[in-house]
Amino acid sequence: MSSSDPKTRPKPGPWPPAPDAAPVPPTSWAKRTGFRPKFSGETNASESGQIALPPRARENENQPDLEAGRVRPAPLVANGEQPVGEKGPVEKDQTVKKRREGDGANKGGSGAGANGHTGTNGAAETGAASQPQQPTRRPLRNEEVADVLPQNVDDEGFVGRHSHMKYDLRDTPGLVPIGLYGFQHFLSMLGSLILIPLVIVPPMGGTYEDTANVVSTVLFVSGVTTLLHSFFGSRLPLIQGPSFVFLAPALAIINSPEFQGLKGNNFKHIMKELQGAIVIASAFQTILGYSGLMSLFLRLINPVVVAPTIAAVGLSFYSYGFPLVGTCLEIGAAQILLVIVFSLYLRKISVLGHRIFLIYAVPLGLGITWAAAFLLTEAGAYSYKGCDTNVPASNIISEHCRKHVSRMKHCRVDTSHALKSSPWFRFPYPLQWGTPVFNWKMALVMCVVSVIASVDSVGSYHASSLLVASRPPTPGVVSRGIGLEGLSSVLAGLWGTGTGSTTLTENVHTIAVTKMGSRRAVELGACVLIVLSLVGKVGGFIASIPEVMVAALLCFMWAMLAALGLSNLRYSEAGSSRNIIIVGLSLFFSLSIPAYFQQYGISPNSNLSVPSYYQPYIVASHGPFGSKYGGLNYVMNTLLSLHMVIAFLVAVILDNTVPGSRQERGVYVWSESEAARREPAVVKDYELPFRVGRVFRWVKWVGL
Q1: How confident is the model at residue 48 (pLDDT cuts 50, 70, 90)?
Q2: Residue 701 maps to a domain
Q3: How far apart are CA 169 and CA 182, in angstroms?
Q4: Whole-angstrom Cα distance, residue 481 to residue 484?
Q5: Domain residues for 593?
Q6: Which of 366, 478, 564, 606 shows the smallest number of beta carbons within 10 Å?
Q7: CA 454/CA 491 separation, integer angstroms
Q8: What is the C-alpha separation between 40 and 43, in angstroms, rounded?
Q9: Cα distance between residue 646 and residue 644, in whole Å
């Protein structure tokens, strides 16, 4: 290892030293195949169809290394030769390069070394050899990984390690910074944590007090499950909470035909049915993870599958978002415009080193709009003489009041009494709504949805690991994380949150924007969340958010979710005709096939018992499946009316049957177990704490 010439440098490990005449093969599939994408939209195609990217000029700033997870100082070594007059930095870089190439050689077929079979993004390496008589400059690392992330992207645009993180996975800068960043992390994801209870409780027949109690329960379970995931799951800084993946099936169960004629306390009865379905589906997800089946299932999950599946989750709620915003257009539209202005037009503004408008776009927009609506309400803008918002609409006789009842109900901010009626202290406890009721047809629907939630989590694991960890996790770590998410959903079912608990997709965006990847900060933020959940007034305050503002925030959140899903295509050749057709078909049929099921058997003049924005979720009562088995009809009509299920089925079948290279498909690459155990950084990133990993070391499919 004393020589810096790559032609003569011996490789460490069990392999014999390479002959002097044999050049070191390139260290990535991109170098071997000559693949160089150009992200500006202009392409220089060669005869083989590959896209050529001209070499970039050497930059004097530090460039991050996606393969090793560290920032390397520039200038870099070209072909192992040190530039004149740049001894200090180059000597250090030569040492780093030797160690990394040595690691790759030791891995063999592990996926990153010189003799490995896969590169950074998972494409297969070819055996092309270099020309000895024409030594060329060894490309910079940021050129080699051009397939992973765009080079010319702004620093908040999911740019992996090109955006320098303030704190990486194992950083602990101090109690005060960790506390501030942890609170910031959870506050920036406020919408994902609190909005789902505000959507599902009203159609269940719940009161404002029930909504406040469910919100407190969600905050408590989210804090507990985030701690569990950080210590015993994937160990990545990912917040767990009620995912939008579970929202559509929950609404379908809530609007089931057998619940339409209920009298009395509908809320508790429907909640117990939801709890039973979630517990059974969570047990299935736990088995999927801890049995090691997830490691096999990972072979079918690639960016071309994840992208349309998650995008379909966000697009599926188009019938709910703006129709509710339109009930009080001046409040709802102002809310949407404020969030757009903060997150896009003011995103560059920094205060004390923090992009407050980008990070806190949702809470800032909510606070300003809520304050404006309060002022309008107090000024009497929504007060009409002789009209009372507490009188049911069916009992209003005056035509004048009937005309304005919708505006009084949706625009006023004093119609909710949740804050006044909420206690100061309330401890969420399991089975608080009663013993769960287990129904096999609803449980089967939720089991399929838990698979979709696992696909969502896999994409989040991979993207977040590129941002904060030294290397992506092993398939065993991914399986361990999915298994723990199943256990977390069991807790959510027992406590009664109304949905399962899984990794929130918005984690990746939050980490990229805040530059905060420390799991200690997420753990401390989770502890704060648990404390807040015990204060009943917090749940009451959140439950007081007007319905139109909730819908306006959801319009933004669901749009973000769709975009986050499609952003997974950056790991593949997004311009490939194969991928374009697969993604296009998946998205189109994910909207068209459910529309057929949702509209089947409904005449234009039919008088439905639910509002128009809930019509897509009553398909079980009128779907095209009409066999003599009522339970089977319910399952098939409900599942095939869910957009994400159709998108997943179309994408996973086409992506795994249509021929395509690993480079073109952008196959996810996970660290090999044996190679990961030899790297101290990877072990520290993913090993279970408190020596728990040693106890379960024999279970090789759920760990390093």
Answers
A1: very low
A2: no
A3: 13
A4: 5
A5: 175-257+265-319+422-545+573-690
A6: 606
A7: 17
A8: 8
A9: 5
% residues pLDDT > 70 (the chain): 71
CA 566-568-573 angle, 5° bins: 100
The count of C-alpha atoms lying within 13 angstroms of the C-alpha of 326, restricted to the half-sphere facing its C-beta, is: 8
CB 497 within 8 A of CB 390: no
Residue 64: DSSP 8-state:
E
Amino acid residing at 24: V
pLDDT at 658 (0 to 100): 93
Per-residue pLDDT of 478-507, as tens digits, reads: 999 999 999 999 999 999 999 999 998 888
CA-closest candidate to residue 468, choices 178, 165, 163:
165
DSSP secondary structure code for residue 78 in this structure: B
Residues 6+ apart with CB under 8 A from 699: 290
- Whether residue 376 is contained in a domain is answered as no
Q: Which helix (H) or strand (E) holds 71?
A: strand 70-72
Tell me how long the chain is: 704
**Closest alpha carbon to 162 in 72, 227, 56, 264:** 72
Query: In the structure encoding, which two tokens stand for residue 5, read together?
Result: 């010439």
Q: Is residue 124 domain-resident?
A: no
Q: E strands of 168-243, at which residues?
A: 240-242
pLDDT at 674: 82
What is the number of structural domains in the chain? 1
pLDDT in tens, 53-78: 444 444 444 444 433 444 444 444 43
Closest CA to 224 of 487, 467, 606, 517: 487
Q: Residues 203-258: pLDDT tens digits?
A: 888 888 899 999 999 999 999 999 999 999 999 999 999 989 999 999 989 888 88
State the DSSP code for 112: S
- Token couple for 331: 């409040």
Q: Percentage of the chain with pLDDT > 90?
A: 30
Question: Which is nearest to 574 in space by CA: 140, 150, 185, 55?
Answer: 150
Closest CA to 229 of 535, 610, 432, 492: 492
How high is the pLDDT of residue 99?
Answer: 38
**35 inside domain:** no
Residues paired with 167 in a beta bridge: 516
Q: Report the 10 Å Cβ neighbour count for 287.
A: 13
Query: What pLDDT digit, counting tens, does each position of 5-28 carry?
Result: 545 555 454 555 555 544 444 444
Question: How large is the average pLDDT for residues 269-282?
Answer: 93
- Longest alpha-carbon distance in the chain: 97
What's the token pair of residue 619?
A: 């398909």
